[in-house]
Amino acid sequence: MNQQNTNNCLDTTQTDVKRPFIISIMHKLVPFSMIWVSLVLMYGVICMYTNTVGQDEFYRFIFFLRSPFVVVLNCIALFISVYHSIVWFNLIPKALPCTTFNKKSNALLLIAGLWMVMLTVSIFLFLFVLK
Predict the structure, then answer these.
(1) Between 99 and 64, where is the model more confident?
(2) H or E segment at 87?
(3) pLDDT value for 53
(4) Does the predicted TM-score (pTM) go above 0.85?
């Protein structure tokens, strides 16, 4: 009986549903968007570090961020990041033991709680940066 319960848990986490083409592309672009954001942040930190020598590096970074190509890439990376968080938050109840979140209402409550935590931390960080 326990083996059958384990198999049922595995069946709920495996998705053999064919995704739309754009969703499939976005799913494959997640690592590239995270690499892009990491590189932009590293470049910004390097420019801030060298800013003690002069203002040139900081302004070079600002002009880099204002480039239309970079703005479009950052918007795409943001969109893919939001999609990635939606997918992961929806998968968390399926990854936990089946006995805990077998009801749809419990799963929705967990997902809503995760979104509230993420929004709270984001707002806190946003207000911290503005000070």
Answers:
(1) 64
(2) helix 68-95
(3) 62
(4) no
